[in-house]
Amino acid sequence: MITYEQVKNNEQIKTYIKKADESLIALGYTEHSFAHVTKVAYMARYILETLGYPKEDIEMVQIAAHLHDIGNLVNRDEHAQSGAVMAFRILDNLGASAEEIATITTAIGNHDEGTAVAVNHIAAALIIADKTDVRSTRVRNSDVLNFDIHDRVNYSVRSSETKITEDKKVIELKLDIDTAYCSVMDYFEIFLGRMILCRKASEKLGMKFRIIINGQQLL
Asked: Residue 200 to residues 33, 56, 209: CA-CA distances in angstroms?
């Protein structure tokens, strides 16, 4: 079986992730490089491990997380689909099985909110892990006065925690935000679609999704 470590340490894949993020830097997007994919892989693993999925599924979801944004190398638009096609060739060249390739590319192709559907548990875990990565360190614009709404929302986050409750019935995203930079309404203006997607992905895993901002449950 192909492993997450094998993919993470592959030099070609490192180049694709680096160059894809360089394109997003030019477009003014927040960080989508190694810090992002590493955090997404960690969270996706946590979700499936906590819910008791087998080791093979945990490896696949981490691989999908590591590769999920490489389509930005082609174009930001429809990057999930471009990334899935790229991942297909990469994984085939690395000797992955047809089952692994099918599962991983399906998750990648279904992770972006424009076309995302939590078609299986791997895709569901990837969606939740990706959409809950909200943190100030993703902001690259150093000029606070020229922040756009995405910069403000991420920069305002003082702490962020995603946890599954002990009864494994709810996955919670808890945020502490500085309202001097971003109001709660600002957050929902750009993230409501993502949070609804997280709710649907959680339902695919047999759970509910809850978001708590500054101590107030909002979803």
From this structure: 26, 24, 8
The encoded tokens of residue 169 equal 């019935």
Contacts of 68 (CB under 8 A, 6+ apart): 37, 40, 80, 83, 107, 108, 111, 126, 130
Is it the case that residue 162 has pLDDT exceeding 80?
Answer: yes
pTM: 0.94
pLDDT at 151: 87
- Continuous segment of H or E residues that includes residue 109: helix 98-109
HSE (CB half, 13 Å, CA atoms) of 124?
21
- Single out the residue of 123, 201, 118, 194 nearest to residue 154, CA to CA: 194
Q: State how beta strands 216-217 and 157-164 pair.
A: unpaired
Distance CA 27, CA 46 (A): 32
Q: How far apart are the C-alpha atoms of 79 and 107, rounded to whole Å?
A: 13
Pairing label, strands 170-177, 208-213: parallel
Burial of 206 (0-12, 13-18, 19+ CB in 10 A): exposed
Structure confidence at residue 12 (pLDDT): 97
Q: What is the pLDDT of residues 171-181, one digit of tens each?
A: 999 999 998 88
pLDDT tier for residue 100 given thresholds of 50, 70 and 90: very high
